[in-house]
Amino acid sequence: MSEPTDGEVLAQIRRLLVRADDVRKAAPQRARPEIAWEEAAELLDEARAWVEDIEDHEVRRTQAAAVSRRAADLDLDALAPMLEPSPDVARAPTAVDDPARVPPGQHLTAGWPVLHVGTVPQLLPEDVRLTVTGRVHRRQTLSLAELQASGSTTVTRDLHCVTRWTRLDNTWTGVRVREVLDLAGVRPEATHAVVSGHPAYSTNLDLEVLREDDVLFAWAHDGAPLAAAHGGPLRLVVPSRYGWKSVKWVTEVRLTDRDVPGYWEERGYHDVADPWHEQRFRDGS
Predict the structure, then answer these.
(1) pLDDT at residue 1 above 60?
(2) Mean pLDDT for the stretch of residues 180-193
(3) In terms of domains, do 123 and 261 share one?
(4) Is residue 48 domain-shared with residue 111, that is, in the same domain?
(5) Residue 106: which of 241, 278, 274, 281 has the closest Cα?
(6) Cα distance between residue 188 and residue 185, in whole Å
(7) Residues 246, 73: contact at Cβ < 8 Å?
């Protein structure tokens, strides 16, 4: 049997996306909406599997974006109960004097919803090893104690998730990423970075963004050690980008001389992820 053409694969993906849309639309009328969400998620998983069969790389990433956008909508449906105050963190403000403080399409949450790929690793502070490698003069591997000894900065910033919630006034404590990069010595050809975390997650970032004043390797949130579910003992915090760029359980920063897509970017998410320009997905949605 011959392999399906890209046209046949695209037609199958469209059929699955239409079915997933219909199931999600009908979910509120179901006695158990979560069953409908699971059914829609299974349809999207099937569509994502078909995406891998597309030969053209750009078309593949565009179709992956169409699947991921719908998956993010499902995540928001399931997260609705988590938008209320969370028991493990202080209540976040849900009103602002200046509406321009909240990026377009975002809704304020009093709590702190939890989203991540895979299960939460149970790491001890002494388990932390952060490697800085790639286009650097001196490869570095640093423990949490060494990171804490290299400097401490506290910033208060808002957190914007691609699933359309925003949590205001997060106070992060950590070391500026640029200070860690300087320890390794950035080579002149470096323009981007691939940042990785447990278990096998990665994202791409422009080097200029990583060097911004408020970009941290953070170990505390609102004055308390960072909880495991939120990326503790150590996570990256990039306030100017959607939350998937703030890698939890961070393990490595690899500097590169080109832009290399990470986990979600290969699945159709935007390479830049600027909330103020609503750069959620590659298809512009």
Answers:
(1) no
(2) 98
(3) yes
(4) no
(5) 278
(6) 9
(7) no
End residue of a domain, out of 83, 118, 152:
83
138 by Cβ neighbours in 10 Å (0-12 / 13-18 / 19+) ranks as exposed
Q: Helix, strand, coil: what percent of the chain each, to 5?
A: 40, 25, 40
151, 176 in Cβ contact below 8 A?
yes
Q: Would the pLDDT of 285 be above 60? A: no
pLDDT tier at 200, thresholds 50, 70, 90: very high
Q: What is the CATH number of the domain that holds 208?
A: 3.90.420.10
- Per-residue pLDDT reduced to its tens digit, 252-284: 999 999 999 999 999 999 999 999 999 999 866
User: Contact, 232 vs 173, CB < 8 A?
Assistant: no
Strand partners for 131 = 141, 252
Residues 78 and 179 in one domain: no
Q: What are φ and ψ of residue 120, in 5° steps?
A: -80, 120
- Residue 247's contacts (CB-CB under 8 Å, 6 or more residues apart) are 195, 196, 197, 201, 202, 203, 231, 235, 236
3-state secondary structure of 152: coil
Q: Let me know if 200 is exposed, middle or buried by CB neighbors in 10 A (0-12, 13-18, 19+).
A: exposed
Cis preceding linkage at 199, omega within 30: yes
CA angle 201–33–105, rounded 5-degree value: 55
Mean pLDDT of 16-33: 90
**Structure token digits, residue 131:** 């490697």
pLDDT of residue 256: 98
Residues 71 and 113 in one domain: no
User: How many alpha carbons fall within 13 Å on the CB side of residue 267?
Assistant: 19
One domain, residues 172 and 272: yes
Map tokens 């149970």 to a residue: 122
pTM of the model: 0.84
What range defines the domain where residue 26 resides? 6-83
